[in-house]
Amino acid sequence: MRRNTERSPGRSLSRQTRSQSESKANVAREKFVTGLGGALLLVAILAAYSNHFHNAFHMDDGHAIINNASIRDLRNIPLFFRDATTFSALPSNQSYRPLVSTLVAVDYQLADGLQPFWFHVSNFAFFIALTLLLAFVVHHLLERDTTSSANRWIALAAAAWYALDPANADAINYIIVSAEVIAALGVIASFAVYFALPRLRRYFLYVLPAAIAILAKPTAAIFPVLFTLFSLIFPEETRKARARGRLVEVVLPFVICGAVLLFVQDMTPRSWNAGAANARSYLITQPYVALLYFKTFFWPLGISADYGLEPFVTAGDARLWIGFAFVLFVGGAAIVTVLFKKTRMIGFGLFWFLIALLPTSLFPLAEVMNDYRAFPAYIGLVIAIAGATVLLVARLDRQPSWAKIATLSVVALFLCANAFATFQRNKVWRTEATLWHDVVLKNPRNGRGLMTYGITLVNKGDFAGALDYLHRAQQFTPRYSVLLINLAIAENATNQSAAAEQHFKEALQLAPLAPDSYIYYARYLLQHSRVDEARAFLQSALRLSPNDLTARELLKQTDLASPFQDHGVVHIGRNEEINQDGDPKAFVRKKFICGSERDKWCTIHFVISFYKADNERLKITLTGEGDNKKTVFLEKETTANPNTPNTQQFAVSVKGCGECEVRIEITEGNTGNVQSWTSVSLSNLPGPTCTDSDMTGGEGTIGLVNEHDEDLLRPTATPTSGE
After folding, report:
1. Helix (H) or strand (E) holding 188
2. Which of 6, 158, 448, 626 is most exposed, with the fewest beta carbons within 10 Å of its own?
3. Residue in 292, 302, 355, 280 with CA at minimum distance from that of residue 323
4. How many Å separate Cα 151 from the centre of its chain?
5. Rounded to the nearest 10 degrees, how much is the dihedral formed by the CA atoms of 339, 344, 349, 354?
6. What DSSP character marks residue 713?
7. How far apart are CA 322 and CA 296, in angstroms?
8. How far apart are CA 265 and CA 414, in angstroms?
9. Long-range contacts: 320-326, Cβ < 8 Å, 24+?
10. Looking at the predicted structure, is the pLDDT value of residue 549 above 90?
11. Smallest Cα–Cα separation from 365: which of 304, 274, 266, 491?
C-alpha cells in the first residue's frame, strides 16, 4: 500500500503560524533588549554628568546671561527674534541667536534667578536627545550596507562613546555653549526625520530641524553639504524619474538653509566682532588645530578651557606643515574608503569630521582653538568608528566565545573609563577658581588664564596673590584691556589709587568701544566720591550696551549720591567692643532733622549691599515724633555666587517726621559684610514705594555710622572675568 506523501494543509498552516509567532517573538525580544541597552546608556550618561548640574557660570555666560537684562523677562521672547542686541550685554558679542536667548530666559524663570541648576538641566536634555537620535541615525546608516541584529548594539556603543567622551564635557558644562548642542541636534534630527519618515520626504520636512537650529548657531547650516555627501555615497537604486526627484531633494536644503543663514547674517548687528587679530594667521593654524581636536577625541588628556594657542605667524612653523599633512591624510583616507561599499561609512564619517570643522576654521574667531567647536565634528568620528566596527564584528563572529566575551568586556571597560574621566572633568568646571587654576597648571604662560585666576583670588580677598598672577599675565598680554581693568581693581583694593586710575585710563584707550572700560572705571570713581565723572562714564557705557545690568545698578547709585554729600558706609553687623563682624545684635542708629511740615513725608532712600551673605534679614525702623513709626524688613535676594555683592535699593517714609531716628539691625542670619549708605528727601508720597521721581523738594543726608562712630571702608566688589 503506497504511503500518502502529501502534507496536510492544516499541519503546514500550523507550522507557518508557529514560524510567524517565533519571528514576532524574536523581534519583540530584540526590541526589548535594545530598549534595555538604551536605558543603560541613559543611566551611564546621567552617572557621568551627575556632578555637573550645580557648576557655576563661566566666561561668556557673564555677558549673555548674568549681566544681560533682556533674559530676565519672558515678555522679551518676541524681541529676541527681532533684535539681536538682546543676546548679550556686550555689543561685540551681540550675534543673532534668538533660540539661545529664549532658552536661557525660560531657564532664568524656572530657576527663579541665576541658579545654574536649571540652565544645566535644559542643556543636558538637549544632549540626551542628541545622543539617542545619533544612535538612531548610525543604526540606519549601518542597515544600508548590511542588515544585522548587531547593528543596534554597534549604534548604541558608538553613541555611548560620543556621549561619555570627556572631549565633549566642556560643551555640556559651559552653559552658553548650549548653542553648539542645539546646532548639532538640529543636524542629526534632520537626518533622523529623513530616515524615519520616508513618505514625507517630498514635503522636505527633514530640512526643518537644521534650518531652525541655525537660529541657535549658524554652524547648523552644514546640513545641506552633509546631506549631499550622504546622497552621493549612499545612492538608492532608482529610475531616472526618481533621480530628478533626488536632485530636488538635495538642492532644496541648500535653498532653505541658505535663506535662513542670510536672514541671520542680516539680523546680526554691525557691532558684532568675531575678534580675530589676523585672518591669515588664524587660517593657516586651523589644520594643526584639527589634528589637536582629532587627538583629543581619542586621547583626551590635557584638556583645557583655554589652551592659549597662538596663531602661526610664518610658514616656517613645523606645526603648520604637520597640520596640512594631517588634513591631506584624512581627506585621502575618506576618498579611498567611500569608493568601496564595505568601507563607505568610514569615509562618510571622516568627511563629516572635516566638513563640520569648516565653519569655525574658515571664519576667523578670537581664539584659534576651543574644544567645544569640535562638538559637531566628533559625530563624524563616531560614524566612522561604527563603520569600522562592522568589519571587526564580521571577523569576531568566526572567533570562539571567550574572544567575544573578552572583546565586549574591553568595550565596556573603555566606556566606563571615559565616563569616569568625564566625571573628573566636570569637577574642573565647578567654580571659576577650579576652572582657571586648571588652565594655569596646564599652561603657565597663558596670559588670560593667569589673569582670570588672579581675579578669583581677588574675590577671595587674597590681593597679594592676585596682583602676582595679574603682573605675570601682563608679561604675556601687556595690551589686553580686560587685564588692565582687573589689575586696576586689585590695585584699588590695596590702596594704590594712582596706579589703578592709570590702568583704568589705559584700558579705556585700548578698548574705547567696550562697555567694561567705562563701567569699572566709573565704579572706581564712585567709590572715590567723584560722582559726576562716574555718571558720565556710565551713561557712555549704557549708550554702548543698554542691557548691561552692572551699568544700570551703578547709575542708580550715582542718582542717590552727590559730590557735595558724604554718605556714611558701615558694617551693620559689626560688634565694635570685640572688633568683629557677624554680630546679629549689633545695629546702626542715627538721629536727624527732617523738617517740621506735617503734610510732608520724610523719605529715606537706602542702598544696602550684602557681601558673602547667606540668609540675612534686616529690620529698618524710621521713627518720627510721638508714635509716628514705619518699619520694613529686607531679605537678601538670591545670587548665584555668595561672593558677589548684592545691592538692593528701597525707600521708607513717615509723615511729618520732625526729629527722626533711623535704626537698622539684623533680625535673622549672620553676616560679616552688610553695609549701607543712604540719602534723605522730603516727599508727598509714602514709602517704601517712593522713587527718586516722586521727590518734591527738600534734601538732606544721613552720615550713617556704627555705635562707636567709626566709618568702615567698603570692600572691593567682585570683578568680572572679562569674557
Report:
1. helix 178-196
2. 6
3. 292
4. 35
5. 0
6. P
7. 16
8. 43
9. 320/284, 320/285, 320/287, 320/288, 322/288, 322/291, 323/285, 323/286, 323/287, 323/288, 323/289, 323/290, 323/291, 324/287, 326/287, 326/288, 326/290, 326/291, 326/294
10. no
11. 274
In sequence order, which residues have a C-beta less than 8 Å from that of residue 589 and are 6 or more positions away?
661, 662, 663, 664, 707
Each residue of 602-623: b (16+ CB within 10 Å) or e? Answer: bbbbbbbbbbbbeebebebbbb
d(CA 483, CA 721): 9
Please name the amino acid found at residue 292.
L
Comparing CA positions, the residue from 415, 431, 542, 532 lying closest to residue 153 is 415
pTM for the full predicted model: 0.75
Higher pLDDT, 398 or 53: 53
Residue showing cell 570683578:
719
**Sheet-wide strand order for 617-623:** 587-593, 659-668, 617-623, 629-635
The residue to which cell 517704601 is assigned:
688
Helix, strand, coil abundance in the chain, percent, nearest 5: 60, 10, 30
- Category of 697 on φ-ψ map: left (φ > 0), alpha (ψ -120 to 50) or beta: left
Q: Which three cell numbers stand for residue 496?
A: 594704590
C-alpha to C-alpha distance for 346 and 348, rounded to whole angstroms: 5
Question: With contact defined as beta carbons under 8 Å apart, do 568 and 702 qualify?
Answer: yes
Q: What is the DSSP letter of 85?
A: G
Query: What does the block give as the cell for 330?
Result: 584624512
Which grid cell sits at 667? 533680625
pLDDT tens for 22-75 read 666 666 677 777 778 788 899 999 999 999 999 999 989 989 998 888 999 999
Residues in the chain, total: 723
If we measure between CA atoms, which residue out of 538, 512, 722, 628 comes closest to residue 63? Answer: 722
Find cell 554680630 and name the residue: 583
- Report the Cα–Cα distance between both ends of the chain, in Å, rounded: 98
Tens digits of per-residue pLDDT, 276-321? 778 899 999 999 999 999 999 999 999 999 998 999 988 889 999 9
HSE (side-chain half, CA atoms, 13 Å) at 323: 21
162-187 pLDDT, tens digit per residue, is: 999 999 999 999 999 999 999 999 99
Can the peptide bond before residue 688 be classed as cis, meaning omega within 30 degrees of 0? yes
Can you tell me the distance from the alpha carbon of 538 to that of 536, in angstroms, rounded to the nearest whole number?
A: 6
